[in-house]
Structures are given as C-alpha cells and as structure tokens.
Amino acid sequence: MRVWVAALLISAGLQGATLEEAVRDLARRVNDALAPKDVYSLQVRNLSQAPPADAALAHRTAARTLRVSAAGARTVEIALSLSRNPGARLVVAEIRRGGESTVLLAAYEADAKPVAALSLERSPLWEQTARILDAEPVDTGVLILDAGRIALAASGEIRQQTAIPPGKPWPRDLRGRLRVNGDRFTAFAGDMHCAGTWRPELRAVCEPGAAEWALVPGRNHFQLPRLPPAFSLTRADKFVVLAGADGKARLMTESGASVAELPRWGSAVAGRPNGCAEGTVVVATDSSERTLQAFDVSGGEARPLSEPMDSGGVVTELQEASGGFTAVVYQAGTRKHAAYRVTVHCGG
User: Fold this and answer.
1) Which of 24, 112, 29 lies closest to 65, judged by CA?
2) pLDDT tens across 75-85, in order?
3) Which of 74, 181, 202, 321 is an S-S bond match for 160, by CB 3.0 to 4.6 Å?
4) Measured between alpha carbons, how far is 269 from 285 in angstroms, rounded to an integer?
5) What is the reported pLDDT for 74?
6) How far apart are CA 240 and CA 221, in angstroms?
7) Helix axes 19-33, 52-65, angle to 10 degrees
8) What's the pLDDT score for residue 348?
9) What would you report as the CA-atom Rg of the chain, rounded to the nearest whole angstrom?
C-alpha cells in the first residue's frame, strides 16, 4: 500500500488550536482530498487515552464539517484518530482509497480547564414493598412520598402518615416529587398538589392541579416549552440536560437547539451546584438504569467527574435534594423499592 503523508507541520494560524478547531480544519482538508463521486465512511478512534467526550466531540465536528457523501460507487474509508507524540496532541485523518492511503495531521491543545474529580456515595433512607416516588431526610427521620400517602418514618417504622386522595385514577407509571423547606413541605403526585407540615404533626392539604410541575397530565414525562418530551431534565451551564421520552439523552439550549447527544445515558438525570468546583454537577444513570455517575457539562459536552457507582437495583427516580440527590431503586431480589441519599465527595 502506498502511503502519502501531508501537513506534517501545523500552520501558524492553527497553533494553540482547540480540538474542535483542529478537527474542523482537518475535515476541510479531507474534503479537498475527496473526489466529487467518492462515497466515504467515517470512523473515529481514541488512541491517546483522551476523555471519551473528546472522541465524541471529534466525531460530531467531523460529521458536521465533511461534505455530504456522494451517491457514487467508489468507497473511501476515513479513519480519524486522536493520538499524541512527545510534543503534541494530534488528530490524524487517514484516507484509504483502494491500495493508497493519505494521512493528514493537525495538532491541538488539551482543554486546560481544571475539573475536580468526585466520588459518589449512597446511604439508605427507607425501603418498602410499595413504589416510592420520592424521599427526603428531616431532623427526626425521613419523609416518604408514595402513591397513596405522605409518611414520616423513624427508627425503621412509620410514625405518622396522611393519605393523598387521587384526583383521578393514578396512571400506571406514577411520578412524584417531594420538597422540604424547614418544617413545611410540598408534594406532587400525578395531578395532585399537597402542601403541609411535618412538625410538630404531619398534616397536608391536597388538591388537584400541579401547575408548578411540568408533568404531562396522566403521563410519565415532562413537557416544557420549546423542548422535547422528557422523563427527566436539569439545567447546567446555560444548557438543559434532558433524558428524552424517545430514549435519547441530549444537551440542549433553552430554545430547543440540540448541542450534543449523550450516548449510553439512561432516563434519569439531576443536577445541583458543584461543591468542589465551579459550575453544576450532573448525575445520570447509564442505559441499564443500574449505575449512577457524575458529569460536568460545561462547554457543551459531558465529561465524567466520577467513576460509575452501582445503584443497588434499577433506578426508578433520581431527584436533586438538600445536601445531595435522592435515588429510588427497585430491587428485584427482594421485590422492594428503596430510597437512598446520594452524596457527592470531593476527590476520586
């Protein structure tokens, strides 16, 4: 195979280029090297142990910059690799056509933005046979929201409870949210809105109409203006992180423009201020809904901040809460639903 190597020296105009700039420049030069009737396939490889988000960014940028593949008969393979040598990080484009291979190079600088490593830890709050919609620790125990009640548990038993009358028959996949502010709380269950106190006595007044909650009436997903239907969503760094009802997780603008797809993410996302660095830490499930992982989404891409943490079951709910997150999981072995407090710790 004959191999031609071009662009061994990076042009002065691209010195100090970001990965996105380097890939865009390289893709434009690949366009120049393609014949009008070339049909091409694109493959991206990470050979430098760069963050997975870098490989995703390279693929996304290349796919957007390469011209539309023609409808001809001659196939060209384009292999885009993230590599490095002792002096630089490189993006390498290899164009394979028959017995010939042309290699193009571009250098880039790694993002110098410091991202603090985190670890996740879970601690049990409560478990029961009935599905738990949300749970929140309070001074004397834990408040629990499920399909039929709001309950206050302590020392492993229910101490007080108040019923939630359904405004209409509950949907099969009921969703709920519990918020605590001092001695007061608000709760949403389906189309019901409850407000009350948990101390000195657990009391609540419930009525139909959950206008503050964007859950679609009778459904298990949310709908906000200009955004697609979502099982869960949160805001971070001027973006919306959204786990869509179509099974795809995305990073979007408030106006509904897609910034990036988040492959292998599941249907549960939640965010809160990052106590270890600037910005927001986003916790998400994987596609199996069995692990939780923390991410930074600044700059329009998702970067892992922690190692995946086993959730102990299948995650059915994930909510931002005071001091961390609340995760509710279904444990197939015991056939019980368990609520956990997930806390974020600085350092890996």
Assistant:
1) 24
2) 889 999 998 77
3) 202
4) 7
5) 64
6) 16
7) 40
8) 62
9) 25
Task: Please name which of 1, 28, 37, 15 lies closest in space to residue 93, comparing C-alpha atoms.
Answer: 28
How many of the other CB atoms lie within 10 Å of CB of 302? 26
In the numeric block, which tokens belong to residue 174?
């009921």
Q: For the whole model, what pTM was predicted?
A: 0.68
What are 151's two structure tokens? 């309950």
- pLDDT tens digits, one per residue of 272-302: 998 888 889 999 999 999 999 999 988 778 8
Task: Find where tokens 């949210």 sit.
Answer: 177
296 vs 111: CA distance, rounded Å = 13
Query: 30 — phi, psi (to 5°)?
Result: -65, -40
Question: In the numeric block, which tokens belong to residue 283?
Answer: 């916790």
Q: Which residue, among 344, 339, 346, has the nearest Cα to 137 in the 3D structure?
A: 339
Q: How far is CA 140 from CA 154, 159, 326, in A?
A: 7, 10, 18
Phi, psi of 201 (to 5 degrees): -140, 145
Contact residues for 54 (Cβ-Cβ < 8 A; gap 6+): 19, 46, 82
Tally helices (H) and strands (E) across the chain: 2, 26
Q: Determine the Cα–Cα distance for residues 157 and 150; give it in Å rounded to an integer.
A: 14
- C-alpha to C-alpha distances, 151 to 43, 98, 105, 263, nearest whole angstrom: 54, 70, 63, 37
Residue for token digits 């985190």?
118
- Tokens 């193009």 belong to 104
CB 177 within 8 A of CB 133: yes
Tokens matching residue 150: 């709001």
Would you tell me how many other CB atoms lie within 10 Å of the CB of residue 164? 23
Could you read off the pLDDT of 217-231 as tens digits, one per residue? 888 999 999 999 999
